[in-house]
Write a structure and sequence with these properties.
The strands form three sheets. The protein has a seven-stranded parallel sheet. The protein has a four-stranded antiparallel sheet with strand order 3-2-1-13. It is α/β, with parallel strands linked by helices and 368 residues long. It contains twelve helices and 13 strands. Helices cover 36% and strands 21% of the residues. Bound molecules: N-acetyl naphthylalanine and magnesium ion.
Length: 368
């Protein structure tokens, strides 16, 4: 693709309700959108970095800065660049996977639109809809949690993930299991809130037949996760720790995970995410697609990824209204507990420009 310009657009979307995790409470979603402008049409990318470095070290302003000052000049200097070359061109710059992912996504969308191919088709996806799970925040009380879970189950979600932290783990899990029964697909996510010293406490989740516990320990505590798999019955799933196909291979080889959550932003893009799924499948490790409160752009792309054959567990690809009253694309809706995979060229979803303008905080256009 020849890049005529790159637009960086900061948006702010109110959440339908505060979302509390072990690292904080979010009330709005700040996102950076990247628009690749080419002579043959545009492509859109979404950066999943948060507005503060609470999930990982990246945040919206560092992503914007590194894209503006380093990535875009390098891409302009490279001349024509295909999506498959973006990661290689940006390789000299250390880190910043979410920023890199957003740029690659924009170029990939532009390229596939030009080719008339859907992202799902490009990935080799084998399904036209994906089962939808939902991530449930830490609540002020167990009764409020039970009402919230009941409402999601009424809507049709096929799997529940409870956010946990020390002081909010066994009690909510027990209550949800008792109220909704043994058939409910139930898992938990600690977002690094525990240490290996908490292994005994985490073992108290063993009786509840959870699908998995996601990222109980620190991002860099791969050895700790390996030890934890030997001390608890619940399968250990890594999220934050898996930052590339190589780190996925390492974590698997070290016995640090029995399952992997794949998030394209965290690993530097959809192409690397696809590789991780292949590495995991070759090692008999199930994968599922995580979520970062994406707008319809990232949500549609995640649905395409989750439709690939390696994705054997329901992902955090929820309906748009789980987080947003008003999305910047047509909303993704639950149909019989599933999300439809977009079929149009590229991401297969288009921004609604009126809404986009309403939620835009700032825009800048970079030219060679
Ligand atoms: C996870 N996501 O699996 C993340 C964490 C997370 C759906 O649980 C703004 C942007 C707020 C990204 C809150 C889910 C966020 C965010 C939580 C990601 O660990
Ligand atoms: Mg997680």
């Amino acid at each position: 693709m020849k890049l005529t310009a790159i637009e960086l657009r900061r948006i702010s979307l109110p959440l339908v309700a505060p979302f509390r995790t072990s690292f904080g409470t979010e009330v709005t979603k700040e996102a950076l959108l990247v628009r690749a402008i080419t002579p043959d049409g545009d492509g859109w990318g979404e950066c999943v970095a948060m507005d503060a470095p609470l999930y990982s070290y990246e945040y919206v302003d560092t992503a914007t800065d590194v894209i503006r000052r380093f990535f875009v000049p390098k891409l302009f200097a490279a001349g024509e660049v295909s999506a498959g070359q973006v990661a290689h061109v940006l390789e000299p710059f250390k880190g910043h996977p979410m920023a890199k992912a957003a740029v690659e996504m924009a170029v990939l969308d532009a390229e596939l639109r030009l080719l008339g191919q859907s992202l799902a088709g490009f990935f080799g996806a084998t399904r036209d809809r994906v089962p939808s799970g939902v991530s449930v925040g830490i609540m002020e009380s167990v009764p409020v949690l039970l009402d919230t879970v009941a409402s999601y189950l009424d809507q049709g979600y096929v799997r529940i993930k409870l956010k946990i932290e020390p002081g909010w783990d066994v009690e909510p899990v027990r209550a949800v299991r008792e109220r909704f029964g043994d058939d409910l697909l139930l898992q938990v996510d600690a977002n690094t809130a525990y240490t290996l010293g908490d292994a005994r406490q985490l073992g108290r989740l063993d009786p509840f037949d959870l699908l998995l516990i996601e990222q109980p320990l620190a991002e860099d505590d791969v050895r700790g996760h390996a030890e934890l798999t030997r001390r608890i019955k619940t399968p250990v799933c890594l999220d934050e720790s898996v930052t590339s196909a190589r780190s996925a291979a390492d974590a698997i080889a070290l016995g640090a995970c029995q399952i992997i959550n794949v998030k394209p932003g965290r690993v530097g893009g959809y192409l690397e995410a696809r590789k991780i799924a292949a590495v995991a499948a070759a090692n008999g490790i199930p994968v599922w697609c995580g979520g970062m409160l994406e707008t319809g752009l990232g949500r549609g792309a995640n649905a395409a990824l989750a439709a690939c054959p390696e994705f054997t567990l329901p992902g955090d690809v929820s309906a748009s209204n789980r987080f947003y009253a008003q999305d910047i694309t047509r909303p993704f809706v639950l149909e019989d507990g599933h999300i439809a995979v977009p079929t149009g060229p590229g991401l297969g979803v288009d921004v609604v420009h009126d809404v986009l303008d309403e939620v835009t905080v700032s825009v800048e256009t970079l030219r060679p």
